[in-house]
Amino acid sequence: MGSVKFTPWQAWSAAPAIPAHTLEEILDGGQAFRWSRQPDYFEGRWGAHVVRLRPATAKADSIEYALPQACHGESELQALADYFALETDFPALTDALPWRSDHVLQNAIQHFPGMRILRQPFAETLFCFLCSSAKQIPHIKAICENVANDLGPALPDGSHALPDWPTIAEAGESALRHARLGYRARYIHQTACFLAENPGWLEDTEKLPTDHARDRLITLPGVGPKIADCVLLFGAGRMDAFPIDTWIAKILTRAYHLEDWPIQRLHDFARIHFGHASGFAQQYLFSAVRAGRIANATTEA
Q: Which residue, 60, 97, 135, 192, has fewest beta-carbon neighbours within 10 Å?
């Protein structure tokens, strides 16, 4: 893999303005698990695509890219534009959030200018977040890499993509355990078998309204509300999907003074308080608490 040649670094002219620390958070902060940090760039994979990205050296808040030389540049750039959801007006979504009166959110937004939600392949996002249960980001990335190397098709740089669901179903639970999925192997294989036997089910689910899609996803083995919301937010661009994990629950209960509220009431609060882009607000808050920006925050001025 190391001998595969990449193109020289080039300016990604279509890229939005993203400061280096925000780009790092987008790629390596829990939205996606197929990016690896190298000394001076990030290397990522989604679907059949491979790309290297780094902050531009000559222009602040700009991005440079490099591709495997075997790739067709124009099609890969379009795939990169789709992956970064360039058609979505994230500055407008940010402005619509209640940051003027919510100083916790305001602090998070100010710390991560240029934040975006990646638009990942829906089926791949489901697999990655099924691997995420009770795991830290480096462990999730390692598991996904193991499964790709064991079961996935080769990519232009000699690495491997994640396998599709029928391939996972055919490989069996033992192959997933070999990839160090542990207890997750059983329900991931059960989900794979269901999806292999029901082609088009995921595609149909992705098209449904958010609440209906969530209800449908949680019928899959191993998928609870948090995973379903992550899949919808990061794999379908549903900005009204608000994943609540341990960190987000702590932010809501402590910073917003919602102690002893059950998860459903926290969801209701998020929908009402943050509005139609509540999922985008969640990403700001999640990133800010990871960066230590909300340790003792309150919503008071």
A: 60
Domains of the chain: 10-87 (3.30.310.40), 122-236 (1.10.340.30)
Residue 135 is predicted with a pLDDT of 81
pTM for this predicted structure: 0.95
Torsional class of 177: left (φ above 0), alpha (ψ -120 to 50), beta (otherwise):
alpha
Tell me which DSSP letter residue 29 carries.
S
- CA distance between the termini of the chain: 52
Which of 173-182, 250-259, 290-299 bottoms out in mean pLDDT, i.e. has the lowest? 290-299
Asked if 85 contacts 116 with a C-beta cutoff of 8 angstroms, the reply is yes
CA distances from 114 to 17, 18, 19, 20 (A): 6, 5, 7, 10
**One-letter amino acid of 236:** A
3-state secondary structure 93-116: HHHHCCCCCCHHHHHHHHHCCCCC
